[in-house]
Request: fold
Amino acid sequence: MTVSRPANPLAMAAFAFAILMASACKKPATSSSAAGTGTPALATARAGFATQLIKQESEDEPAPAPPKGVFDRITYNSPAGKLAAYLSPDPADGKKHPLVIWLVGGFSNSISEIAWEEGMPVKNDQSASAYRKAGLAMMYPSLRGGNDNPGVKEGLYGEVDDVLAAAAHAATLPWVDPARIYLGGHSTGGTLALLTAAAAPESRFRAVIAFGPIDEVAGYGQKNLPFDVTDAKEGRLRAPVEFLDGISCAAVAMEGADGNSDSLAVMQKRNRNPKLNFIIVAGQDHFSVLAPTNALLAAKILTDKGPTCTLRVTAAEIQAACTKAR
Reply:
């Protein structure tokens, strides 16, 4: 097994974005569904398929201990085994609380101090701490092959099952409202959020928030992926653009116009799902859109209390939030 040590999460996310931009024009074509005919849910399409990996990679650093009272370091059961996660502590107030599951960017499948790091610049705040600071519960799951977890990285294939397992764990917690579990992520985490939403049972997630996702995972390039990116079947089952119709909850995908907006535009053009909204924010990039928008969405989640999800955000609202944050 080839073992690689986890890099700085901020650097890894920036690297992932650079690789994406460099290879955007070289992605193999993996789309096979006819326009307008709809696509099956990702879970259906994956049934009976076993991914074939051309390299076996994992990390070997345990998840750092979080500050007391900010997060608990727990494990949750996934098909790969017991995986580490950071989880907000039980408020012990006898109430059911909404919870945000956040998927970080990069290729390490690991969690780190980024979950609680303070003083991050507003133009590159990948912590998603706005939700926690607004009073929302949070969970940061690591994935197979990340930290010192069992399993190997699968390039956003088996990782879908890990995120679904993390959500199932969260739904059993007595202080979490299982009807108000939100899934969010940035960069590769945003891509994984869309794939997970397309494979999720109806009502598993209240809403999905994806920053800077890519339309086809193969576009991240062979150097960063453990499967053969020229294999059409492997690529298609990791391509959010092929399974947008399978997302059954409210979902929004966002990106700065100076970021990976071309990939977002591809999905927006293919999308026929009225529950899924795409927003390209003028004057922002892959990172600067994060902090202001997360703060805006955190406030909206606090008021999303009825039987039906009311979480909505517009390009104008995000633009105003970004302008104010300068």
The chain has nine helices and ten strands.
